[in-house]
Automatic annotation (TrEMBL):
A GO biological process held by the record: glutathione catabolic process
Organism, as annotated: Ginsengibacter hankyongi
Family of this protein: Belongs to the gamma-glutamyltransferase family.
Pathway field: Sulfur metabolism; glutathione metabolism
Gene name tied to this protein: ggt
Lineage: Bacteria, Pseudomonadati, Bacteroidota, Chitinophagia, Chitinophagales
Catalytic activity: glutathione + H2O = L-cysteinylglycine + L-glutamate; an N-terminal (5-L-glutamyl)-[peptide] + an alpha-amino acid = 5-L-glutamyl amino acid + an N-terminal L-alpha-aminoacyl-[peptide]; an S-substituted glutathione + H2O = an S-substituted L-cysteinylglycine + L-glutamate
PTM characteristics: Cleaved by autocatalysis into a large and a small subunit.
Subunit structure comment from the entry: This enzyme consists of two polypeptide chains, which are synthesized in precursor form from a single polypeptide.
Full protein name: Glutathione hydrolase proenzyme
Keywords in alphabetical order: Acyltransferase, Glutathione biosynthesis, Hydrolase, Transferase, Zymogen
InterPro entries: GGT_bact, GGT_lsub, GGT_peptidase, GGT_ssub_C, Ntn_hydrolases_N
Active-site residues annotated for this sequence: T381
Sample GO molecular function, one term: glutathione hydrolase activity
Amino acid sequence: MKEPPLLFLLVIFICSVQFTYAQQSNLNPYNYHPVKQIICRNGAVVSANALASQVGVNILKEGGNAVDAAIATQLALAVVFPGAGNIGGGGFMIVHLKNGKNVAIDFREVAPGAASRDMYLDSNGNAQMHLSQDGYLAVGVPGSVAGIFAAMRYARLPFKKLIQPAIDLAEKGFVISDAEAKSFNGSKNEFIKLNTTLPIFVKDEVWKAGDTLVQKDLANTLKRIRDNGAKGFYEGETAKLIAEEMNRGNGIITEDDLKNYKPIIREPLSFNYKGNTVVTMPLSSSGGIILEQMMKMSVFENIGKMKFETPQSVQLMTEIERRAFADRAKFLGDPDFVKVPVKTLVSDAYLKKRLRDYTPGKAGNSKDTKEGVINVESDETTHFDVIDKEGNAVSETTTLNGWFGSKVVVAGAGFLLNNEMDDFSVKPGVPNMFGAVGAEANAIAPHKRMLSSMTPTIVLKNNKPWIIVGTPGGTTIPTSVYQTLIDIIDFNMSPEDAVNWPKFHHQWLPDELYIENTFDKNVADELRKIGYKIVIKSGIGRTEVIMVKPGGSLIAVGDGRGDDSAAGY
Ligand code: GLY
């Protein structure tokens, strides 16, 4: 394997110093640092923010199980990670219970009742993508709070205990990191332009690392949820504040839309990979189906014989990604609204045919590679992982879609609303903010769930959690989860390397191969020579992994690309 980049070694060094500090410091919202890797025995949480991870671990120490810790972490992220943590968005949760049962909780946003297929087209039929991406019309009916209460049936501690750390962080404040300061400053003009009332994230001076963010309105909203359960969000004062905000900004979500929102408990998608069971998210996310397609195609082509990040392995994986995304664009959508041929799409027979036209050493192209032939069959986002000492595990990805979502903050309630409507296919063939295209299956309809790429995943060995993984990153989510799993399972990489070494991504259209700027330049040149159009990206995903080692110790890894942080005991 090639030498690690200097920056990576520096990050590891800084992290090990910070690791020692953070272990001593526990939860101090005015002085904390990310911890990139932790090895422990009893329980671990890894998330986008050190405070949120520590909140989760404290709940485990107080007798909570992995679901309790996940709920507390999710609520804390809604306070300390406003760019993507949320109560105004939605997401997916995969739970493995110690009794062997696996559950998928779908709390994806839905289109408002007044939404319509062509709502983002002008009178000439042209897509007005700014309307699906920013501001009031971009907002889907939020699912996050309903998802939390759907998960409560698997929790053990009283809800009041799980939400209190989030209330405290909102009410008493916490210091922000350099990355957070930059993101508030960078979005200031959009916050001003897109809101009817200036949100707390806008101030006259520039934000700096170490400034304290206090969110009193958000604290009061969280208290209403604490006291009234899901009704504290979907009915009463909070629902009224959302509906009033919609009226002020010409949005279309009504109090009825909120009252009628329902999360769905689903059977997870499970498949065998080299003797392990991969448990992942079914529709309304495309992530699990794409992951299953990609992993199965990899095994048919014997990826294990190749090596990490060689021109051969990257080309094969790129062509696999291209084909999976061509299928996504054509076939996938909310299964309550469209018939999706899932069984065929993940069948061995179908997937073996998908790679028939793949030529090693020569780039494919998306003009010739279409979706597969089906015979009729009878995003910004944030991810966290939790495991407890009893063997319960949670992999959860939740999102506002873009960074700060629609950028609309509900005045008086203090939280950001998503811009998830952009995950629908606004017009067939017109790319969304992730460049993804879609077709009829993902067209807008009232109350329909927009297609997601989120891929929270738990890999079981002998029916016990082995790898818990997921990432934010829109359409790059399934490919980052895919590469992380192949890196660990087929290329024998450590979880730290699998998380931090460079990633790449192909999504059929645009016909471009994205590579991270740390990707091996020689390999990139080889791929260019055989015909790939390479586009360099500053970062792909922020993958979090917890791995259970033989003997039972836990290794939790937070992605070096962000403030991501692991905690455990
Ligand atoms: N909003 C990103 C996703 O759901 O895939």
